[in-house]
Specification:
Strand content of chain B: under 5%
Strand content of chain A: 5-15%
Distance between the termini of chain A: 75 Å
Helix content of chain A: 55-70%
Radius of gyration of chain A: 26 Å
Largest sheet of chain A: 7 strands, parallel
Shape of chain B: flat
Low-confidence stretches of chain A: 273-289
Order of helices and strands of chain A: HHHHHHHHHHEHEHHEHEHEEEH
Order of helices and strands of chain B: HHHH
Number of domains of chain A: 3
Radius of gyration of chain B: 20 Å
Distance between the termini of chain B: 60 Å
Largest interface: A-B, 126 and 89 residues
Largest sheet of chain B: none
Number of helices of chain B: 4
Number of strands of chain B: 0
Oligomer: heterodimer
Number of strands of chain A: 7
């Protein structure tokens, strides 16, 4: 090992260490930003080191430098532009796009390496195939997910024979992949793997509903990490392997957390369709038959203003209506009157893990008011008012009973509050497709309105009544 | 299988375990920045692109390398910038009454 190579390896090690330490600093909002900057610093070091390595290798020529630099500049400009411009509500789409390009780049690396190196060991051939399969599935799957999140269409798309086609695509990828691993050194074989995997990725995400997106994004994130780790095997580069494994672990943990919070298995979500096996008949309970009380804005304002503790329960409806600033304004008014306000955030509020927290942070809600489910649930007993904005299934007490579509799902104990106000456009049921028993609770009043308009009305009502 | 393949596998498995250990301590509040930060980490694939650039040749090779470089660079630059943008929004409660809302 030459002196330069040793130096480069040490620098890469430093870079990888920065990634781990950076992720470690993410354990608190106070240090997280520093963690991200440390991670970026590690990335810079790792990239400079590898540039030194290849220029020292003596095989770079003007054309190679030019193409490399041009590609990097174009990509950087696109990345920078989208990162600056993206609205926080669109964060899930952007993360999906970054998953797509990361997985795509990893797959391209494997294809390029395979096209140029004729002698590969079986281990490297295996990694090449895995890299191409996972990278391509991530690429096409993430693009479809981003398009769905952007709202081009959010309904699950399924067509007759779709499952058959995706089975054929998967079979094609596996068969051709085995051929490559067995030693067929033919670029065409790897291209078949890539095309089949791209098709499989599209067919995998198309039938998945919008509400399952937190799980899908997390899973695709884990895939990208794994694809990058495989690229590390192909190029025998430890930095890629380490970084890819870290991302794979992160995506894996988040996938599990999201699936648990929705009370569904990952397999069930990927296989598509809701409630297989859990759709038994609901046993008793008030259901839709119970009477529902609606309430006027002035009465809501009074209840809130004279409460001593209010817990806001924001759900996807709040994010969809972009009402995070209005909710913050209402909370600020209440806090000026000495009301204690906190926010109960269910793990799947929003469209990706932790999305609701980012939206509220953007609206200047301090992070110590954002409470996780386990932390806030005991506090509902002491709350005078629980204000539910655009959340549905995650507040349904039916989840505590067996035998219905939400049974066993972890919920926020909203019904423990002294009184409950629900801002909702209509009595339409949530994603699980069942009535929310919370709405028929005698303590519950319904304020029928769009989240954004309703909150704005409450803000002005509070100002006139008690301002 | 070569020794270096098993060596890489060792590193992979250990890194996976370190990842599980470190990331399971991240609070739910930060899960979006965590994912987007992890996202930028897989932008390290740019290192791989630089490595393959040392031996590509022919029009196909250059096209593949250009695409890979653009994808990876968008991933790494965009990922870190947007994560930083998000994280700077996470603020503590202001000490006095929240009068600086306009900020």
């Amino acid at each position: 090992m030459s002196g330069v190579e040793t130096g480069v390896r040490l620098a890469s090690l430093a870079g990888a260490a920065c990634f781990v330490l950076g992720l470690h600093l993410m354990n608190s909002p106070a240090t997280a930003r520093r963690g991200n900057q440390l991670s970026a610093g590690g990335m810079f070091v790792a990239i400079i080191a590898v540039i030194v390595l290849v220029s020292d290798g003596g095989t770079m020529n003007a054309a190679r430098w030019l193409v490399l630099i041009a590609g990097t500049l174009v990509g950087s400009a696109a990345g920078l532009y989208s990162a600056r411009k993206v609205a926080m509500t669109q964060m899930p789409q952007l993360v999906s796009l970054f998953n797509a390009v990361g997985g795509g780049a990893a797959a391209l690396i494997a294809v390029t390496d395979y096209a140029h190196n004729s002698h590969t060991t079986r281990g490297i051939a295996t990694a090449t195939v895995l890299d191409v399969v996972i990278g391509c599935v991530t690429f096409s799957g993430s693009l479809i997910a981003a398009a769905k999140l952007q709202g081009y269409w959010s309904q699950p798309v399924s067509f007759r024979g779709g499952r058959l086609v995706s089975t054929v695509a998967l079979g094609g990828a596996v068969g051709s992949g085995i051929w490559v691993i067995a030693g067929a050194h033919h670029l065409g074989a790897l291209v078949i793997v890539a095309v089949a995997a791209l098709g499989f990725g599209i067919l995998m995400v198309l039938p998945i509903g919008g509400a399952d997106m937190p799980v899908v994004i997390s899973l695709l994130n884990a895939f990208t990490g794994t694809a990058v780790a495989m690229a590390g095997f192909v190029l025998e580069n430890a930095t890629l392997t380490i970084a890819g494994a870290l991302v794979g672990a992160s995506g894996g943990i988040l996938t599990k957390l999201m699936a648990d919070a929705m009370n569904r298995s990952v397999i069930n979500i990927i296989a598509g369709g809701f409630g297989t096996g859990a759709s038994g008949t609901d046993m008793g309970g008030p259901g839709a038959g119970g009477s529902v009380r609606s309430i006027a804005a002035d009465d809501v304002a009074l209840q809130l203003a004279y409460a001593s503790k209010v817990i806001v329960v924001p759900g996807y409806g709040l994010a969809a209506a972009q009402a995070q600033h209005e909710v913050r304004e209402l909370a600020a008014l209440l806090e000026e009157r000495g009301v204690e306000v906190s926010y109960a955030i269910h793990p799947v509020a929003g469209r990706m893990p932790g999305h609701m927290n980012v939206l509220l942070a953007e609206a200047n809600v301090p992070y110590d008011q954002l409470k996780e489910m386990d932390e806030i649930n005991p506090e509902f007993d002491r709350a005078d008012v629980a204000l539910v904005v655009g959340a549905n299934d995650v507040t349904n007490p039916a989840a505590r009973r067996p035998g219905n579509a939400v049974s066993g799902m972890p919920i926020l104990d909203v019904d423990h509050a002294k009184s409950i106000i629900v801002i909702k456009r209509s009595m339409a049921s949530g994603y699980a497709g069942i009535d929310n028993e919370l709405y028929a609770d005698p303590k519950t009043s319904m304020f029928f309105s769009d989240a954004k308009k309703g909150l704005a009305t409450l803000v002005s009502a509070t100002k006139t009544l008690v301002g | 299988m070569t020794g270096s393949f098993v060596g890489d596998l060792t590193i992979f498995v250990l890194a996976l375990l370190v990842g599980f250990e470190v990331i399971s301590k991240v609070p739910a509040t930060l899960h979006t920045p965590l994912m987007s930060g992890a996202n930028s980490i897989h932008g390290v694939v740019l290192v791989g692109v630089v490595l393959i650039s040392a031996f590509v040749h022919g029009p196909l090779g250059y096209v593949l390398m250009f695409l890979a470089a653009a994808f990876a660079a968008a991933n790494v630059v965009g990922g870190y910038v947007v994560t930083d943008r998000m994280l700077q929004m996470f603020k503590k409660r202001p000490a006095p009454a929240p009068k600086d809302d306009a900020k």
